[in-house]
Amino acid sequence: MTLRPLDPPPALIAYSARADIFLARALPPEDQPPQELHRAMRYAVLGGGKRLRPVLVYATGTALAAPLETLDAAAAAVEIIHAYSLVHDDLPAMDDDSLRRGQPTCHVAFGEAMAILAGDALQALAFEVLAADSALKADSSTHVEILQILATACGSYGMAGGQALDLAAVGQRLTPDELERMHVHKTGALIRASVRLGALAAGCRDKAMLAALDHYGHCIGLAFQIRDDIIDVEGDSATLGKTAGKDAANGKPTYPAILGMQASRAKLAELTDAAVAALQPHGACMTELIALARYVAERES
Questions:
Q1: Can you tell me the mean pLDDT for 192-219?
Q2: How far is 97 from 3, CA to CA, in rounded Å?
Q3: How far is CA 53 from the centre of its chain?
Q4: Mapping DSSP to helix (H, G, I), strand (E, B) and coil, where does residue 216 land?
Q5: Is residue 217 pLDDT above 80, yes or no?
């Protein structure tokens, strides 16, 4: 089944373009030694992608009246972390994928050793970009909190922990709660952190607002994974930009495999509704974030 294209919301296009410009400047130049490592880093980050995580930073921050320049570093950092995670996840010792964003994965293009180094260097660069951020108009404790949130999102209580659970789950029959726990860490943690970073970079300290945004981030993080699992079944490799059907072929537990397709769609709709409901009481400033929640649930790649 070939999925029809879905037009992304304008916020995704505009903020994605801004993120691309900042990322290109933040990454080391290709002609600066070690050239091969820097080429691999730029290849991993600038080779396409939806830029959903930096877009969430921008959309959250602007909803809270933050100037865009105060959000650039946090937006770049979450995307650099995301890119590093994809480089490592695609390695033969992990998911062993040869296609990512419609092109050869980093280890196929540059070799396994260089891909590992590129991932390591990207992770370090994300924190360097955040630590050196001079545009952030926040006190030092907020700056440290931003660093801590990102570190937690990519550590053993976040992406790395989720990947460990994912590897252990191959060939196993997980319960729905176990599957959700895995994806709250592997996929949801960085998406949720993106929303939190946007709020903190905007200087938000309103507890009710932060709680609403955090619930929104939690819901769309899980919704993103459920939609990913659905399109892995329904899509084709050309549309997805990665190998379709690979999760099922590798015996990985997915929402359609454990809940069934109908229940997976119902869960996706439930999470999307919950994300929207969390923000609607806060007015028209949340329009972009609400549109992004719906896009996450309806996208085809």
A1: 97
A2: 22
A3: 5
A4: helix
A5: yes
